[in-house]
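Section 5.1 Outputs to date
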Amino acid sequence: MAQRQLAINAFDMCCPGHIQQGLWRHPRDRSSCFQQLHYWTDYAKRLESGLFDGLFLADVLGVYDVYRASADPAIEAAVQFPVNDPLMIVPAMAAVTQHLSFGVTVNLSYESPYLFARRMSTLDHLTEGRIGWNIVTGYLDSAAKAHGLQQQMQHDDRYDLADEFLSVVYALWEHSWSDQALCAKDLDFRFADAAQIKAVRHEGKQYALDARHLCAPSRQRTPLLYQAGASPRGQAFAGKHAECVFLNGQSFDAIAASVQGLRAQAVAHGRAADDMKIFVGATVIAAESDELAQARFEEYKAYADSEAALVHASASLGIDLSKFDTDQPVAAQAAKSQAIASNVQAINRQHGRAWTKGDLIRQMVLGSRQMPIVGSASRIADYFIALQTRCDVDGINLSRTVAPECFDDFIRLVVPELQARGVYKTHYQEGSIRRKLFGSDRLPASHPARWDSP
């Protein structure tokens, strides 16, 4: 059987400090230019030169204020703060590329489905079908307070909200305009046939709507759908909705179990197992030899900020890690968290249920819980192929370290090695991002968006 080709996304955020906390301080890092448009257009052109499938952009709507019960540590260490709107930079990057796709994170908890549907349709038009949406419901109380609420909804309730939100936007994208709504210019003087554009009517627990979609159908209609929840409720949600699922890197056995569970959820919802592509997060430090890569790793470690990493971890776990001694077990407090449940579960699997702050600090050698893969192109290719073969994954979300050199090194060294082994494309296919990944611009008939209207 021929080896499947891996899809590769760059994973970043419109801020100075994304995942590897502290590396923005490195003298060769250029992420401090994140507020300048040329930084992003240059970034996009670099990724397309390396045949990357996409740029996956994370986002948050609040500040990390769990650690020390204050936002000050996050602000002072640039832990995903300041952070700009990722949607605003996409059209400029699309204008200087032809194939690179853009996965944008948007928290639906604070969105109007009607206006959000228009923004995404607009981006799908402007990118000619290269836009995806990472569906998130948020995990920060600070975001809820910024929107006039006392705290965020309970974990599983947020997914119930998301189900209803998606039902509304699916109806707008897929069912408001028929494929025959636009009129041929040479046949009559009407732009569109009003009879072919129907109002979407919805009365639900969270949303009420009576409106036609403001945008004509875009190439994909519904943007490519990403989702990253790995809790039991998150997996059920992904099984119903997600086309691409993003998993955090952990042991091969844990990844394989998550992949198997996700594909089973898709089948349980009447979809095919391969209707879902699984991407795993990875951090790579590549060089011409293992020795040179190790030297680069040691250089990077000098700039990593372990306390900033605790700031980030405290927010994503919903636990103030500043209250714990280095060797004091944290797990009992973690069980009460309403933040990212799958993060707590992943740490339990990795370190056992008696894990401590010290376990996290020792793991966060580059300022994140993601241990880097360090070595030559051959060593990194071996790892990716083993990950694909043993865990049944489809792609990698490649986190930045020192930008842009981390991606330049990957493109210069690792991409040719993967191509030589037949697991990475040598040219782009034409069409939308969904066509590149699944063979069609539109969602399959088995997806709930094609038949589920509110």
